[in-house]
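Recall from the previous lesson that a structure prediction takes nothing but the amino acid sequence as input. Here we apply that procedure to Peptidyl-tRNA hydrolase ArfB from Psychromonas ingrahamii. The sequence below is the only information supplied.
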Amino acid sequence: MLKISNNVELADWEIDMTAIRAQGAGGQNVNKVSSAIHLRFDIKKSTLPDFYKERLLALSDSRITGDGVIIIKAQSHRTQEKNRDDALQRLKNLIVSAAVVQKVRRATRATKGSQRKRMDKKTQRGRIKNLRSKNNDD
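The prediction returns the following tokens.
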């Protein structure tokens, strides 16, 4: 049971985890022990609320296939248990991040006073630079 929020949980049957051999350089056990975890989660067949499903399917994430399946490969730890926990945590973080609604951004304008102040500073800076020149016509 993976708890997403207070009222949203995923059952164990919804998450398919397979142990595979990790890639990359390793020691004596790298070619013998299946310590990496390959997690598959089908968004469309899950019991998630429709809000979560729509938001997840709308994401442009490389971990989500065109069929709506989330694929996570966890191999950063040495033990299978830690990799399993890491994969579940990454799935949870992905689902929670999809549920966050971004604040609507409204365009704002600078005030007249701040524009005038900026222009005055530019003029002052130009006068200072003009005084540094060899030809002072002022």
